[in-house]
Structure formats: C-alpha cells, structure tokens
C-alpha cells in the first residue's frame, strides 16, 4: 500500500517543489502530481524506490497506514507567521507531525511527567496570568535557572525544529490534553528562552481561544513571556538606581537569560524607561548589533528529560538511529528534532541514568 500524504510530507520537509522532486527522481511532474493527489494507482516498486532515493526517506515510510496527523495552522501558534513563506511554514508543520510520532514512541516506553499547566483563558491581563503561573509552580520572583528543565518537569513536551531560517521562531499546541512546544534552535539561546515563555503564554492563555495567529494573541503572549521570565519586583530591585544606562542593561540581562532588547522592553513596560529613553535605547542597541545577536550571550539550555531518555535508551543499546528505524523516519529527521536539545552527542555511559519517568512494568525509580 501507498500513503500519498506521506509523499507530500517528505517532499515538503525536504523543501522541494513538485517539479524539483520530479527532476530528481526521474518521474514526470504530471505523474508525481497524480500520485500526491491520489488520482494515480499505487506506484510500483521501481517508482517508489526512486522517490525514496530522491527524498532520502525509507521506502517503508511511504507504506505506513493510517491517517497522517496534520497540524492546523489556525490552531498552532506560530510567532512569525507573516514572515514565513509557504515552503517554510509547511516544512515546520510537518516537523510537528514527525515529532508527534517520535513522542508517541517515547510515551509508549516511559511515564513522562503529567501536564501541570492551568488554563488562564479569559484572564484580565497576561502579566497577571504569568504571576499566577509562577505562584502555582512555586517560583516566587527568582530567575528561572533552566527554563527547558522547568517546562519539561511540568509535563510540556518540547522538541526542536532546527529550521535553518530566521523566519521560523517556535510554535505550540495542545494535543490529547498534552501541551507541545517546538523551538527553532537556529535562533540565539536568549531567543529560545523567550520563545519558551511566549509559547507557555499561548498554551495557558489561549488554549480555548480558537485561531492564535491574531496580532492581539501575539502581543498577549509577548507580555506573558516578559512578566514570566522577568518578574516585576525582581527587575525593580535590580534597577532601583537611576539613571539606567545601556551598560546596565547589558550587565543585568544575564540574570534573566534574555536578550538586551527584551530587557529594554521589560524596563519600558514597568515604566523604568520613558518613551524617549526606550526609543533611544533601541536605536543604540541596534547600532551595537543587538537586534540580530547577543555580543555576550548565554549557553544554550539543554533538555534534562531528553538527556535522561537517550542515556537510558543507550543503556539498552538503543540509539537515535534505532528510534528512526522503528518509526521508518530518516535518522537526520530524528536528529533535527532532538539533538540541539539534548546536546550534539551523547557519550556512552556504563552507569544507568537515574530516570524517574521510566516505566518498564515496574515502579519508576528516582
């Protein structure tokens, strides 16, 4: 059997137009179009082998039965939807489909932390929702040491997009009462931290709000992220003196692991910078190159959950390549989903990872 949707998935994940795949595979554009639309009969083995070779996907991938879980762009909270081309958008959405298959495989083997994410839909102000979530999680006003670790411990499933384009930031959605976030780790570490806060804002404030691509929803998620990552009382305590300078911003932004621009925005939100000062600071940071990068940045956060899972799998001689083989997904796609989260390499270890979430028909161990 042949699953035509999986052909579309693989083609768009590789960023190929129909005519480009036709040229690479030696098929005619018309034949390929008919295969994807379902107007042609199932391809013979030779045709399928050509497609698999051109796309670098296993032949078995195209024979997997059942509906392909397509993510709806109206319910997925893209941070920069207007900046994206259709090719970039589709590739990122299909990454989500593959990520769900990977997480289904993991969920069958491990008891992952259950979701602990209150529904603040309809809350009067995003900053209030951010404060309530901090209270719910017992964070107080202190900076968050590892945002990825925190979110994973609260049952949020996080994967990497690894899309090599500045137009794709991150997105999130709920699926079967489980929250998912996909981060584009092509961005700076500070950008990824803010993306985490932004997407938590969507997950908590817009869970039942319908389409999330509105300008209002994006503004609210940004306000939530600022308040969640940089609590007002803590920021005020650190900037109690006057006047505030660019040097102060660059020194103190490290405390909350955010970009210089995000720090300046937060200071303006809490009225520690006037409108004139805010504009001046933005211009100066732009001149210094802080709109596109951080001259003195932080280390990228690593996923503690994925590290433990991969280490535990390794102890049973199961690698990331084996995950791909089990799902008939190319190894490079599995790598793109998780490698920047858990680290580029996972060294073999003779000591079994202490993984609380493991379920092997016995009680989970601390």
Structure keywords:
single chain, 16 helices, Arc Repressor Mutant, subunit A, 434 Repressor (Amino-terminal Domain), 366 residues, 3 domains, mainly alpha, 3-stranded mixed sheet
What does this structure look like?
The protein has 366 residues and is mainly alpha-helical. The protein folds into three domains: 4-63, 434 Repressor (Amino-terminal Domain) (Orthogonal Bundle), CATH 1.10.260.40; 81-229, Arc Repressor Mutant, subunit A, CATH 1.10.10.2910; 232-287. It contains 16 helices and three strands. It has helices at residues 4-13, 18-25, 29-37, 45-55, 86-107, 126-136, 147-153, 189-205, 215-229, 232-238, 246-256, 260-269, 275-287, 304-315, 320-327, 331-342; strands at residues 157-160, 170-175, 178-183. Strands 1-3-2 form a three-stranded mixed sheet, with helices on both faces. It is elongated and about 75 Å long.
């Amino acid at each position: 059997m042949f699953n035509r949707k999986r052909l579309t998935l693989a083609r768009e994940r590789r960023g190929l137009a129909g005519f480009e795949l036709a040229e690479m595979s030696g098929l005619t554009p018309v034949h390929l179009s008919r295969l994807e639309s379902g107007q042609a009969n199932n391809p013979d083995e030779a045709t399928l082998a050509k497609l698999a070779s051109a796309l670098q996907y296993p032949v078995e991938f195209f024979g997997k039965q059942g509906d392909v879980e397509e993510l709806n762009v109206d319910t997925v909270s893209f941070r920069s939807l207007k900046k994206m081309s259709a090719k970039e958008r589709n590739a990122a959405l299909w990454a989500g489909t593959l990520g769900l298959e990977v997480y289904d495989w993991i969920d069958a083997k491990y008891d992952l932390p259950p979701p602990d994410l209150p529904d603040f839909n309809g809350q009067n102000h995003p900053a209030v929702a951010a404060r309530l979530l901090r209270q719910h999680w017992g964070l107080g006003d202190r900076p968050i040491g590892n945002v990825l670790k925190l979110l994973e411990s609260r049952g949020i499933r996080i994967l990497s997009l690894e899309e090599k384009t500045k137009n794709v930031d991150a997105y999130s959605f709920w699926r079967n009462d489980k929250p998912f976030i996909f981060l584009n780790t092509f961005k700076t570490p500070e950008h990824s931290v803010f993306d985490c806060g932004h997407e938590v804002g969507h997950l908590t404030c817009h869970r039942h709000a319908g389409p999330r691509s509105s300008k209002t929803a994006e503004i609210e998620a940004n306000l939530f992220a600022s308040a969640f990552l940089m609590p007002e009382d803590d920021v005020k305590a650190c900037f109690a003196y006057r006047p505030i300078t660019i040097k102060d911003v660059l020194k103190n932004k490290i405390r909350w692991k955010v970009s210089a621009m995000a720090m300046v925005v937060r200071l303006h939100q809490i009225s520690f910078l006037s409108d004139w000062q805010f504009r001046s600071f933005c211009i100066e940071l732009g001149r210094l190159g802080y709109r596109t990068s951080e001259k003195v940045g932080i280390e990228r956060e690593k996923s503690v959950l994925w590290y433990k899972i991969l280490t535990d799998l390794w102890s049973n001689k199961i690698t990331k390549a084996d995950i791909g083989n089990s799902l008939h997904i190319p190894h490079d796609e599995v790598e793109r989903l998780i490698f920047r989260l858990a680290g580029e390499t996972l060294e073999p270890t003779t000591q079994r990872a202490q993984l609380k979430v493991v379920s092997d028909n016995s009680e989970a161990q601390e």
